[in-house]
Amino acid sequence: MNVSFKHHDIEFPTQNDVLLRGWLYEPIREVENQNLYPRIVMSPYYGGVKELFLDLYAEYITKFNFVVLLYDNQNFGDSEVDPERIGIWGTSYSGGHVLVVSAIDKRINCVVSQMPSINGKQNLRRKHKNDEAYQKLLNAFERDRKQIAEGGTPRMIPILQPALQPDWWEFFDVNKALDEDKWRYKNWKNEQTLRSLEMYGEYNPEEYIEQVSPCPLLMIVAENDTVTFTEDEIELFEKKVREPKKLVKFNGDHFLAYKGQPFEITAKAASEWFTKYLQT
């Protein structure tokens, strides 16, 4: 598709008055075109921000005549869209979110879940080399809860540890980014609360998977994913996901999806899925 588009900043409050910010992408309308466009809501991966290559997905999908909201947290804004045709897209952590949302909110007409995090506890357990290391993490959770209950501040920890996760860190390392991409890292910080990690370990979107149907689900997985784990995603898809469904694989690891040929494969698959179910 070769549709021209525009995008602008958008901000809006949540129910608890937190101000959210994002980018709204819209096809440029011909004067005679008064059709309502389907809308797609997109959100980042765990610890991610919209600038870190997710805008490329928003631009790609907009060219297929969709209004796309890409946001840094949750909820969405308002535009000239068709409220009867709503799709959602998520990747990694938010890939799990869209499974839960489409299971609960039946206004959703189509969903794309890319490399979804489906079992937080299992993922955390795998990322610790033995029972002793995992128990140390659980003990840290307990100390943090006590500190917060006593009026202390939540403990902050890195999202990634470059020395221990060099392959993952390469994606987030601004020093290795191309000059034209360095702006993308401005709003990203390698920090999180320990409580956030604990809550991640309590979050299991796979529990909702059988409720997604009849909403059409496209699941996109990396063939060598050691973040959300390819084997878990495929097993869930094959054993528990109901029709209508489709599985797309690409050659690479978790962080290759956002650039180069893997990006072209994943963005094209998502656009075609939304077109099939929202443009008819």
Report the strand count: 10
CATH superfamily of the largest domain: Alpha/Beta hydrolase fold, catalytic domain
What's the overall geometry? globular
Low-confidence stretches: 74-79
Q: How are helices and strands ordered from N to C?
A: EEEHEEHEHHEHEHEHEH
Domain tally: 2
From the 3D coordinates, which CATH architecture of the largest domain would you assign? Answer: 3-Layer(aba) Sandwich
Percent strand equals 15-25%
Largest sheet: 8 strands, mixed
Number of helices: 8
Identify the strand order in the major beta sheet.
Answer: 1-2-4-3-5-6-9-10
Structural class of the helix and strand makeup?
alpha/beta
- In helices, the fraction of residues equals 25-40%
Q: What is the CA-based Rg, rounded?
A: 19 Å
Q: Average pLDDT, to the nearest integer?
A: 92
Which CATH class of the largest domain?
A: Alpha Beta
End-to-end distance, in Å? 16 Å
The CATH topology of the largest domain, please? Rossmann fold
Question: What key attributes describe this structure?
Answer:
280 residues, alpha/beta, Rossmann fold, 8-stranded mixed beta sheet, two-stranded antiparallel ribbon, 33% helix
Compile the SSE list and pairings:
Elements: E1 5-13, E2 19-27, E3 37-43, H1 54-62, E4 67-71, E5 81-91, H2 93-104, E6 110-114, H3 120-126, H4 131-149, E7 156-157, H5 166-172, E8 192-193, H6 194-201, E9 217-222, H7 230-240, E10 245-250, H8 260-278
Parallel strand pairs: 3-4, 3-5, 5-6, 6-9, 9-10
Antiparallel strand pairs: 1-2, 2-4, 7-8
